[in-house]
Description:
disordered N terminus, rod-shaped, 42% helix, 3 helices, 6-stranded antiparallel beta barrel
Amino acid sequence: xxxxxxxxxxxxxxxSCNKKADNDATQKAKADSLAKVPxxxxxxxxVARIEPEDGxxxxxxxxSGRVLAVLxxxxxxxxxxxxxxxxxxxxxxxxLEQSESKISTQKAAVAVSQANLExxxxxxxxxxDTYERNLRLFEGNAQTKQAxxxxxxxxxKLTKEVETAAANxxxxxxxxxxxxxxxxxxxxxxxxxxxxxxxxxxxxxxxTKTGDYVNNTTQIAEFAPKGSLIAKTEVDELYAExxxxxxxxxxxxxTTGDTLAQGSVSYAADYLKQKSLFKDQSTEQEDRRVRDVSxxxxxxxxPLIGSRVDCVILLK
Length: 316
C-alpha cells in the first residue's frame, strides 16, 4: 500500500513539473518575441487595425441586368479590367445584330441606286445627242418641229431622272449613317454589359450571386486594392505632437505577442479629432482627442486585413 501511494506522489510531482516547464517555455517564447522590439521610454504603444493603404473598397456592378454567372471568388487576386460578372445582354445583342443586318440591306440599296443613276446618265447623254441632231436637221429644214420638241421633252425627263437618282443615293447614304450610329450605340451598350475591376487587387468578400438583378450602383464585392498594408491607429493628444513621418514602428500580434511586421509612419493627421477607431459604442463620449496615424508595413508576415494588433512607434 505504501509503495502504491509513493508511486502516485511521484507521478503528481512529475506532472506538475511538466506543466511548469510548458508554461515557462511559452513565456520564454513570448519574451523572446517581444525582445525583438526595442523597449525604451522613447516609444508610444497603441492599438491598430490592419487595412489596405487605399482602404477597403466596395466594388459596384457598373451596369444593369441579371447575373448569369459570378466570375470571382473570395481571396482571389484580380487584374485591372478583369471581368467580375457575366451579365445577360441577349436583348442588346439582338438589337445590335438587327442593326447590322439593316446596314447590309441599305448598302445593297445604295448600289442599286448608283446603277440606276449610271443608266439614267447614259440615257440622258443619248437623248441629248438625239436632240442636238434633230436641232441641226430642223435648222436645215430636214426635221419636223414635233420631232424636235419630242426629243427636247425626252432630255428634260431624263435630266429629272438623273437628279432623282442622285438624290436617292444621298438619302440612302444618309440612312446608312443613321444605321451605323445605331450600331455604334448598341455596340457600346453590349460592351457596357460587363462588370470589370477598375484596378488590380484582391476580392475579400463576394456580395452577389447568380440570378440576382444588379444596377450600376449595386455592391457586388468587398475589395482590397493592390498595394501596401497599413496599421491605422490613433495617438492620444498627450503624445500627438511627438509623432513624425518616417518614425520606425513594430506591429505585434495581440494573440501571441509575436512581432508580425515592421514599418514606418506614413501619415499623421494635421488635426485632432474625437476617438473613433476602437470605441465600444458609437454613442460613447470621449473627453480626450486623438491624432490619426498610419504605419506603412514593410516586411514580415503580414497580418490579416481587418485584424486588431498592437503597435510600437519609436520616437527616436
